[in-house]
Amino acid sequence: MKKQEKNVKKKTSNLFYKILSFILVIISVSSASVILYFEVLPQKYLIILFITLILIILGICYKLNTKTLLFTKIIMTIFSLIIICIESLGIIYSIGTIDFFNNIFDTGYRIETYNIYVLNDSTYTSLKELNNQNIIIYETESNTLKKAINKLKDKINFEKISVDSITSGVNSILEKESEAFLISESLISIYKDSHEEDYAKLKVLDTIDILTKSSGSFKIVDVRKKPFVVYLSGSDLTGSINKVSRSDVNLLAIVNPKKGKILLINTPRDYYVTLPTKKALDKLTHAGIYGIEESALTLGNLYDIDVNYYARVNFTSFVKIIDALNGIEVNSKYAFSYDGYTFKKGINKLDGKAALAFSRARKMLPDGDRSRGENQQAVIEGILKKVTNPSILTKYNTLLKSIESEVMTNVDQTVISKLVNLQIDENIKWELESISVKGKDMMKPTYSTGTASVSVTIPNEEDINMALEKIKELID
User: Which residues contact 292 (CB under 8 A, 6 or more apart)?
Assistant: First the structure.
């Protein structure tokens, strides 16, 4: 009887070791496949890793499945479980990374929202009540506007009255010359910035969303071997990341992987520049209304360089990213207060909402928009320091999940893999330089606002030339 029990225990133990060995091999093969898929390890490290891993796995499996001391089998079992846990964790992180890049990769679809505005104190409660009334249209060369007008025609009959500026359209409503005003949410936000009291007299009666597909293309380069340029755009709206809006933050990152240097250029949102596809002068921030491609192309023309990649966040994502990092530290050049927050000169620990206020403050700062740009650069540096800290690994997947719907980019997983591969291979000590360009404030008409003049910043040629020299020095 005892002999039978002993044989049963032995068979059970042998079965356990075989199952453990099988799981170890399967998990190890899966882990190796993930490493090969991502291509993050240079070949010299890849060969060493795989040879070492194969020898360790074979050694463990041999010890587990041959006659050896019980103590040795226990040690091999512990090693097996440790390896399985580490490799499983790596696979989970990798799957999370793949999902993240699939979700943030820009498919090119955009949503442009058009609103029908009426007086706030009017009796209108539904769109049908505007049937057979006059509706103001601010005419622009926009395919989405034509689609919005056609959608509105499907709902009601109306007489279209065209105006040559946003201000004229709003005034027509305020003076009760017309009943309603159809205009894109992005364009009316321009008016709201400088006419808050008059804007408050309006209300949205109905909304029309237009879905479009971007046809823009970017010149992709081998980021391991050649310099590349990334456009970082901060949208001034909350909500969906693919919603058309102005670009409140406009930063170019020129990266030279061979020199290990990054040049960060901040361009004021009010810079008076030529929109390439419109062939007309406008504010840089307004370029975002016509797509992130328009903004990237505008900056590329200004600095005589091709933009290869872009990443876009809006105010919603900005807050979520920083909160997911448990806050950041920023170095403020000035002491100031804004939006209920007080910032001291020097290091400030900020959560998402505080960092947003820090980035948006402008009027109380010494150099206005330029100072705001410096604050935005300080926030980006704070984020970079946090995400490059090894402690981020403990909440890696949680962080990715929290921001995956809040970022839009054309940087795919292969680009990131190449950069990680390069960093591991050469252990680059990156040098970061930040510069800002200035200009002179003036009143000028813009393509987006029509004949009405608005405050713009005329580029300072000396600053632009200085930026061009630094770019040339970095990429040559």
Answer: 214, 216, 231, 233, 247, 310, 312, 408
